[in-house]
Amino acid sequence: MKRIDAISAIAKNAGDALIVCNIGFPSRELYAVKGRQENFYMLGSMGLASSIGLGLALAQPRRRVIVLEGDGAVLMNLGTLATIANYAPKNYLLVILDNCCYGSTGSQPTCTHLGTDLASMAEAAGVKDVKKVADLDGLHTALEGMGVIVVKVDPGNAVVPIIDISPEQILARFKAALS
Amino acid sequence: MDPSRTVYRGMKHAGIDFAASVPCVNLQELLRLVSDDPDIIHIPVTREEEGVGLCAGAWIGGRRPALLMQNSGLGNSINALASLDFLYEIPLIMIISHRGCEGEPIVGQVPMGRLTPKLLDAMDIPRFSPSPAQAEETVVRAWKLAEEQRRPAAVLLDLQFWRSA
Description:
- The structure holds two protein chains of two kinds.
- By secondary structure, chain A is α/β, with parallel strands linked by helices.
- Chain A is built from eight helices and eight strands, in the order αβαβαβααβββαβαβα.
- Helix content of chain A is 40%, strand content 19%.
- A six-stranded parallel β-sheet of chain B has the order 2-1-3-4-6-5, sandwiched between helices.
- The radius of gyration of chain B is 14 Å and the shape is globular.
- The chains are: A alpha/beta, B alpha/beta.
């Protein structure tokens, strides 16, 4: 499964859910497939999508929050799994798009390429609802739940333009979608 | 005057209703007050940078966030402060136990203790070092500045501050 196909499936089935998306190509792919105002595109602070989404989910308990994070980014902020396990509310879902590499910087392999299993790490951290999926059907089913989903995707980026709106516009649109 | 209570009162008057924290021994009483407050969502995080992310998300979601930490955590947070809070103009009040100053018994605290004001100045983050008598008002002022200017602000509370109980 290509990552952009996973992102497209998530965005098109998100309803009015808020999506917080990791820096780099994942945000560009999300912007290209469905540039909805309920998307928060990160342009920096790699590793913090899961944390931003958690703060948002706690502040907006009536809104579903879906975080799109990468394997490299989760490995950069592993403590987030323990925090999520113990403090994430029911409206929070972390989707880890695991392509086993740093896809935005030249596809250098991450440790998931060598065997590190982020789903097992999430379970060991105490996350109760952890799913592993590798195809679109499995993804559709898993998206109905909460907790953490690890989605195996192919390495490689889609040919998509850079995000042509400013950080101020990203935030203003997103905040407008909240009110 | 109880230094922890004055800071807590400042947080309450500022309307702080979300806190992320990594503990310092000097913050223990303040952390207890914050944890016991039903109107503050308090999330103890594993690393200060994670707290910057949580606080940013909470602010976007309509809360008034504070990050409670030791100054060593400033070093763990610099990229997030710049490429998240500065970039999107997100306010944050950092309430920081400032170790490594005069009277510090632990040598390992000294390098970051000396660098902390310089790092904040280099990042153009406003910093305040109130006495316990000023702390309540200073916390309110620091939050107002953060909120009005949409930027992080820091309140540094050194060993002398906590010993004044």
